[in-house]
Amino acid sequence: MVEDVLKEAEAKMQKAVEAARRELVGIRTGRASPALVERLPVEYYGQPTPLMQISTITAPEPRLLVIQPFDPNAIPMIEKAILKSELGLNPSNDGRVVRIVLPQLTEERRRELVRLVHRKVEEFRVAIRNIRREALEDLRELEKEKLISQDDHRRGQERLQKLTDRYIGLIDSLEKEKEKEILEE
User: Which domain holds residue 118?
Assistant: First the structure.
């Protein structure tokens, strides 16, 4: 029973780390990457749709993104979504594709991006701590119902804490990696 609680908590923590990884990929560094905009929600005929579902996104040069919509009528919607995002990018189009030239990152913009990374990472740390709290409640409940002993409960708590520390460590290393990537040029 303790194993089940720990396995479920670990699975949720793994998902949180994967979500953090996906979220951080979308934060801009000095190089163009399709991941920067692929999840950007575009109001496409009244529906918020991820950009990658309505277009092909490529990075033909280190500082250039080219977005080729499947439907050319979507170009104004794509441009609007890019301008509304926190990315600070200026799209241009030729009627068939949207081009985004990534400007050099200023020192101030780098610091802003690092703060954004810290904010996002903290949200994922909180998510992992919430998973731990739920698992602790489950263990307490099992002990209260006499399904596990006090010793099992204590051992389960210790193992859960080690699990939590490991996943918080993974999140922290993602944060350090991203910060380093933003600050180097």
Answer: 2-25+106-183
- pTM for the structure as a whole: 0.69
Are 126 and 91 members of one domain? no
Q: Same domain for 48 and 97?
A: yes
Q: What is the pLDDT along the chain (185 residues), one digit of tens a residue?
A: 889 999 999 999 999 999 998 888 777 666 778 888 888 899 988 899 999 999 999 989 888 899 999 999 999 999 999 988 877 788 999 989 999 988 777 888 788 888 889 998 999 999 999 999 999 999 999 888 888 888 889 999 999 999 999 999 999 999 999 888 888 75
Residues 66 and 116 in one domain: no
Instruction: Provide the strand spans (E) within the chain.
Output: 41-44, 47-50, 55-61, 64-69, 91-93, 98-101
For 60, phi then psi, to 5°, come to -70, -20
In single-letter form, the type of residue at position 107 comes to E
